[in-house]
Each structure stands twice: as C-alpha cells, then as structure tokens.
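Supplementary Methods, section 5.1.

A reviewer requested that the exact input to the structure prediction be made available. We therefore reproduce it here, unchanged from the version used in the analyses.
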Amino acid sequence: MYCYTGGPTTNVACLDRLTGTTVWTSKAMAQNAAFCSPIIITLPERKLFVTISKDNLFALDANNGELLWNVKDDSVKMDAEYCNTPVYAKGYLYSVPGYDQGNGTLKLKLSPDGKSIQEVWHNNKMRNDMGGFVVVNDKVYTTSKDKKLRCANAQTGAVVDSLKNISGSVIYADNKLFCYTDNGNMTLIDLSGTQMVVTGKFPIKQGTKEHIAHPMIHNGILYIRHGKAMLAYQIS
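The structure derived from this sequence is encoded token-by-token as follows.
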C-alpha cells in the first residue's frame, strides 16, 4: 500500500498491506501532496509510482522509493490543489493541469525502463479546473475553464473538435463520453462519428451544493456522488 502524505522528509511511504510494516519511505520532491490520486505503471523492468506534487509531475521506483524523474508543472492557484490524475497509454504519459498556469496539457514519452521521460508536445489551451480527462482512440478529451469540451489529436496535440457550454468531469464507456457538468447535468456525447455529438442529458437532482465529483463506471452502472447523495444509473 502506497501512502502519499507530502512533506519535507517522509513524503511517500510504502507499507506491507497485510502487516502494516513500512517497506520504504521516500523524500520524493519534498513538496506538499496534490489533491490527486497516484497511478502505478508496470513495465518489464520495474513498477513506477507516478503522481503530482505541488509543482511537479514525478515518478518513483515502486520497489524502493527512488526518485527517477520529475517534470516541472506549476499549475495550481492554491497549495496542493492539483486535481487531475495522470493517464498512461501505450508508452506515453498524459497530464492535464488546471486553472491558468503551467504548461497546459502534456504528452510525455516514457523510456522503456521507466527511468526517464521526454516531452512530445504541450497544448496550453487545454486546461481544466478539476474535471479529469480521458484518452480514447488516439484522442484526448477534457473540459476547459472557458466552458468548452475539447478534443485533441493525441499524436500532434492539435485541437480537432470542441463543444460549447460544457464544463465538468468526463468519463468514457461504450463509445460515449459521460460529462457531469458543473451546472448539474449528466450530458451524453457520442463519439462514433468524425465529430462529437450531444445525444441527450438529464439533471442530477438529489444531493446539495457544488457538482464537482468525478463519476465512475463499473459493470454497466454509472455512479455519481453529489454532496451526501450517491446515485447509480444503468447505462448498459
């Protein structure tokens, strides 16, 4: 079990999940932890623990906590506010920062041994606050602060399609995007054609306060949390 607590010394800790014994600790970047879930990338030579600190995207060797590489990306307004988990796909790592700082959406090439990384492209027009993003069929989809859902070509980083008046969290299933918008609607977007097409939407009525949670899909059920309410919808 990996615990990302942040701080100047014991920044990340690995524990035996059965006994609670500490396997290793790492100073990592010695920065506060961001509001972002880490990922584990399994390569032939090693496993990587990849996440984002206050100012950096970084990777540790998951076996011993060694810091392997980091990429500067100072894209948060407030301390530790970064909210988007990186995505790994086909040897590449994607990162979408929030707000109006940082490098914009990044595509990075991970070396086969996981010990280094190289920038492929960045697009500073693709940013969002905390809505997450998906990489599907060689395209990157994310909502932006200017209330647009944008689609970028994953090979070049160029924006190839967009929809207005959509801002919030996105998730993918069955050749569709499900976008939980910050005005409280679940918007369905079809990706089967050459352009994104809105095919329907329904309001999330239960719960209170902001619509900011990331939805989840499991076994054909779409789960959404709104405040203290948890809702489940059959989608397939």
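The mean pLDDT is 90. These observations are discussed further in the main text.
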